[in-house]
Amino acid sequence: MLGALVCAVVGLLLAMIVTVLVHGWPSFSHNGLAWFGAGGDVDDQLNAISLSGQAGAEYIYTFHAWPLIWSTILITGGAVLIALFSALFVAVFIVEFAPEWMSNILQPVVRFLASVPSVIYGLIGVVVLVPFIGNNLVTEGQKASVAGVISLTGYSLLAAITVLTVMIAPLMVSIFSDGLRSVKPGWIEGSLALGVNRWRTTWKIVVRTARPAIVAGTVLAVARAIGEAVMLAMISGSVGFSPNPADGVIFIYEPSRPLAPTIVKNIDQLSSPPSNATLFAIASVLLFSAAFLSLTGWVARRSMRKYGAA
Amino acid sequence: MRIKSLAIAVIAFAGLAAPASAGAVTLIGSGSVAAQPVLQALFATYTKQVNHKVHFVYTANGGNAGVKDVQSGTSQFAGQARTPLPSDAGTTYIKAFMDGLCLDVNPKNKLSSISIQQTHDIYRGLLTNWSQVPGSGLETTIDPVGRDTNGGTYNFFLQAVLNNEAPATNVNALTADGLVVNAVKQDENAIGYAGLAWQGSKKLKALKVNGIPCEAKKISVEPLKYPLSRYLFIVLPGDGSTSPPALTKFIDWMRLSPLAGEVISKAGGVPAFNKKK
Lengths: 310, 277
Prior knowledge:
The structure holds 2 protein chains of 2 kinds. Chain A is mainly alpha-helical. In chain A, 72% of the residues lie in helices and 0% in strands. Chain A contains 13 helices and no strands. In chain A, α3 (66-97) runs parallel beside α7 and α4 crosses α7 (157-181). The longest helix of chain A is centred in the N-terminal third of the chain and has 32 residues, at 66-97. Chain A is globular and about 75 Å long. By secondary structure, chain B is α/β, with parallel strands linked by helices. Chain B contains 8 helices and 11 strands. In chain B, the strands form 2 sheets. In chain B, strands 1, 2, 3, 4, 6, 7, 8, 9 and 11 form a 9-stranded mixed sheet that branches. A two-stranded parallel ribbon of chain B has the order 5-10. The mean pLDDT of chain B is 84. Chains A and B meet through α2, α5 and α6 of A and α3, β6, β7 and α6 of B.
């Protein structure tokens, strides 16, 4: 009975992966590796793809996703880096240094924050953060320097990374602190008894032993960040533009659109066969990166098993 | 034992979902978000004052999705804010009422009137500074705001203002009409477009378009005085003859009765064919 259930779940998963890949295949086969490259305006390409399906003429598939991929890398990477450092210190504080009454409050608060639906973060971003950046941080000179190409109105890398960090950090904190807590007390006591100070013990024994949990938490957070669609569709900006670090300070104010929000924003064009293939191709890239991530996480945890805990 | 109680729970839930009273008709629709406020008001009035036995369920999932629902038979009717496209084959469009698309700026902007040509140039990225638009009193970069391609408003704007040319890359395409209005309220350099139902806030200023104010009384069937007037449609499957009689009756009431006309104006639309009292 249970075995059949497990088989059904695995079968369903396989069927889903196959469906996504099969639907997306035409887009990959027409573009080859250039699919992942740069070239032309990605929004114009999406538009042409959609129109060619409605007109009933020969389908157009030309699509170069680099601006979307670059945006995903920047936003996810930025948020995960910031969240990793802050979450590690917060988790160490909660487990090792905070007085008991404080960790009793912090623990459920962090758990709650980790489960807040992303739309709520998106709303706060749209109502508070985006206008704040647009009206107070971006200067008229900066706006004028890119006028006609992009608008610096607050829908930006800065807004997206900030909100995404706030979204994934609690998830990391709660997994990290579980890992830190499961370190054998004997190891910590042994280190302290040898006269090693508390901070060094925490760093060298506790955090090191908990490394598998840190990897697991980070992998989960990256997966959530890559797949985040609704919140980013609301605040990352709506143009398929590649933010350029060479632009200086303006860089963090530049709008962009990652892969997952692109699916949300173009969902209406599913009825046009070439758009359908393109959106499913984007979906299979997301699916593949999720699978790749959990594989990396598994390999990393395996090689760290000798350190004990988890 | 557990499975049994689970089954009972499932059956109980199914019971909750069943229609509340016998003899009642529930009409299922979906589609345009722009038409939703007016349609909901019409549904409520119809059920309350005309026919208690007819109930409506309307999901505002966007005009294009609504038409698809009608084509696939999921919905009995759809609300739609754009004119028919070739991809809508197998459906009938019925003109229901009218709406005007207003061009809005922040009240801090002194501009009171704009031409279609100027709007076109702003959204095509040809005019990028308010100093290029006489009367604005601003010297700052324009922040044009619009809808993403999912919106019926976007399609209408594309046809009526942009001559079907794609908007420039500096136009911020947001996912909902409410977000467009919100963006204009919060940014004194912004310009955006939204239907009549969204107007009336002090934080939002509707511009005259080609000299004609964006008001309900300037929008009428013949002649089309306000340049950005549009029809909102009800979409039916096939040629409309297969629809249930309750639905056809409702549509006639909505299009012609004076009561429906009042409801439409109150909810922010403009009655097109309704008789006056």
